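Hi! If you just cloned this repository, the fastest way to understand the data is to look at a raw example. We've pasted two of them here, unedited. The first protein comes first, obviously.
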Amino acid sequence: MTEPFTFEVLARQGRARAGILHTPHGDIPTPIFAPVGTQATVKALTPAQLIELDAKLILSNTYHLYLRPGDELVASLGGLHQFMAWNRPILTDSGGFQVFSLTDMRKVDDDGVTFKSHIDGSTHRLTPEKSIAIQENLGADIIMAFDECASPYDRSYLEKAMNRTHLWAERCLNAQTRRDQALFGIVQGGIFPDLRQQSAETIASLGFPGHAIGGLSVGETKEEMHRVLELVDAILPESKPRYLMGVGTPGDLVNGIRRGIDIFDCVLPTRLARHQAAMTPTGRINLLNAANARDDRPIVTGCGCYTCQHFSRAYLRHLIIAKEMLSATLVSIHNIYTLLQLTRDLRQSILEGRFDEFCIENDPQLATGE
């Protein structure tokens, strides 16, 4: 019987690597950026537009889909792939981060989390077993162990949260019944090297088919993030994919890939688009600025995305001022294309043995990993 999930590393340059993750819904070339479709939709885009962008993987969220429309309803309608008309791989988060972000609306104990819905205030209970059951109903290709994300600097609480995460990881493994889903364990421990080392060693020992690094991009500095990634990279098995959760600026992609990361996701490209901001190789552009009112140039000259091939900055600014929904769609197309194309280019540079040269050519600052 063929294994539903296998991971191949095709080339390395330093710690950066290019590979392929084989899944039941298609191959994922790594490194890869996954647009976020929290509520079974990537905001402002249709699945056809994502296919046109050649997105290979998207992310949806357990917490949100459990509350609305309900994981059992999704299962009754054929699972998430059929429900949202997406036939390529899907990853679901466990809901741990969303519960963490509720702060005063939750109560954590060693068995799980009791929380109030942000929608209607109703009370719910989420345990490792419940998180796995929800994700099995949703039917994503890659699912996450239930973890506790905590403030990166609160050592005393981080230690408790890390130990819970380890216990919950074992319970998630025991609760899993579907073998057509790859369950990833999550490394926690904040910015503290000894906790991160302990967590990486513990999670790596449990036999997960892939590993995620959580609890980053939650307030720590870039330098602290990089130190954590370097430490974890040296511990996690090289034969399995690594996923850096919730991180996705161009610089973060380069610096994560440099430190052995294979999978990224982030809401940033669509969130920026809804706030009139476009990503470019040299930074962000505020399309609402008056300087764009008569600018007939695309967002980025030479960009291959649909938006830049057809529309000017002046037109996009007009849509924004007129509060037309199309503005969010067109700028989201450009922003997602920017990250997908950067990741494709970085992957190709690893395959061709010119990763460092590519980084220097595109941004000399990135060549040093800053």
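Ok, and the second one:
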Amino acid sequence: MKQYLKNIKQSFKLKKSLNYFVIAVFLIAMICLDAGGMLGRSTVGILSRIAYCIILAVSLNLVVGFLGELSLGHAGFMCVGAYVGCFCANLLHKSIASDLLVLIIAMLIGGATAAVFGFIVGLPALRLRGDYLAIVTLAFGEIVRNIFNGWDAFGGAMGLSTKPYDAHSLFIVAFIVVLFVLMVCQNLIRSKHGRAITAIRDNEIAAKAMGINVTYYKLFVFTIAAFFAGVAGVIYGHSVSIIRQDYFTYNYSIDYLVMVVLGGMGSMNGSIIAASLITYINVWLQNMLTGDLAGIKQPIYALILIAVVMFNNAPALKPFKERFNLRNLWDLIFRSRRKPEVIKDDAAEWNRIETKIKIDDLLSVEVPPNKANTPDKPQKDGAAVKPKKGGK
């Protein structure tokens, strides 16, 4: 038992679980504020929106950041999940009294339907790469949106009427789903399957040569991402009273692609931060710029995104970012508490241990030649002559 606990302790790393801890603390704080009546309906609505935006950004990061495929149809999968899941929820409300149970079943149905569409679309489309794949997925999103727009069973152009979930409880469920999605995605990436996925991203030809089933892993990632997009669509559908197809335009897919790019390709934590900030900025601009000023919302939003992109990629700002990044600030704060004898003796970490000799000094030492240490001279028959006493 002690050995088992020791193994768990050794395998546990704070940096791998820090995002879970931060989201859980944030959720508990919001629940406490809501219980004290300090959160209004608009605030909890923003929290729900941030939650399903994080789900969409993290799931899209699986395709774009880790698999290396450009997809612009994420809004289409969200649209499928929202319509089908909420349509089933309307039917389930007639026989099931628990709204929470209906919401869970609707998320499973919506996610499964979106996953099926992801498999159907991905099977032929993932044979393409780059711009061609982006065009096919973009076309899928527009086709799905127009199908629901003309389907009378789903409300047609008037939209699908839904029963909104309690706003003060929906954000709690949404953030719990965020934790689940984050757990699945991070464990997937850290597994052997995740290493195969990143190998496909780095060099698909080499991955095939090593025996990796490229088609299987591409479909697997695309289907998982579509499933989570459908779940996010169901959460969105229960936050509004009417689901309209004009909400799921291609601009919506580009918004989530921007979140992934700004947060960092292949960075889960970056996707979480970028989705939260961009969603909040969108809502803030929408509330601040009303009336005649509503027309300049998009230009201001675009300028903010351009400024962030320039800050992330400007070569002149690279020394500033390297000096004042979070890792350096963390080391600066806790450097005085670090004991050299506690630091792991790692050959790759010479610069962290002040008690060791610097490798540059070691390489610059000149060793004078010594005749006694010269190697034996080989003879013609391969035998070596042993040096006599006195080094002669």
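That's it. A detail worth noticing about the second one: The two ends are 65 Å apart (CA to CA).
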